[in-house]
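#help-structures
NK: newbie question, is this the right format to request a structure? protein is 6-carboxy-5,6,7,8-tetrahydropterin synthase
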Amino acid sequence: MILFVDALTVIDFSYLCSKRGAVGESWIVDMTLHGQLNEESMVLDFAKVKKQIKAIIDDTIDHKLAIPSQLACSYSSQHGRVQFDGEFGGHHLAMSAPDEAVCIVEGETISEATVIAFLKQQILPKMPDNVKDVEIELRPEPSRSFYYHYSHGLKKHDGNCQRIIHGHRSDIGIYLDDISMPRLQKEWAERWQDIYLGSEEDLIDVSALKHITARDNDYAFAYSASQGYFELAISKSRCDLIPCDSTVECIAEYLAGEIKAQYPERKVKVKAFEGVGKGAIAYA
């Protein structure tokens, strides 16, 4: 017997790529369970699928930085903290954070295939005996317009969004006088492709870093949140500083203001997404 649950959840995370550095991603998770009927004449109660399996996914990879084991040579873990320091595509990136901010995925790269294998290893041992196998499909949301991959951290967030490198794959909608503007959408999507959106409030002098070392032409960020102390050093060319928090509400408002400055006589509307099916709208 086969049980399926489409769009069980969405994984919003960032992963480390040898060429692109930190890449924000959002994948919809479709799940299929193979097994025998239990005493309730079910493979598994849908409520348990949605609650238990989603919890496993949330705990293992969601809102984390996924590092392929091939790149883990630059990674170390001790005393409840992780850190790495490396060059990716000619750009520097170093991070220090609590353990739960990172996961290691076996393989040379982070891809749908390697993450599926990783998740299967986490999920199947926790299933009841009548569940014999699980199949997982990871897919991006079909794009309505241009999109970008971004990473960020929200120090004021009580949950996992406070992790200093996690991210999203996000569509962007820009309208002038209620007319969609694909050219502007493309410009911002290209500007923010594989970007780290850093809040000016979290910027520190590179000499103040405690656990990692910055290089020339790096920005340094640090903050304390409920999960612990976070540090990041990143090449300025891979970062865009914004004068606000990087919540999707603030991103939408920031974009609307920037575009309004270009087109002061036009009514501006920005529809900014945070991953799949959610986001914020701002006007200027």
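mod (FA): yep, format's fine, and the tokens are attached above. The mean pLDDT is 94.
NK: thank you!
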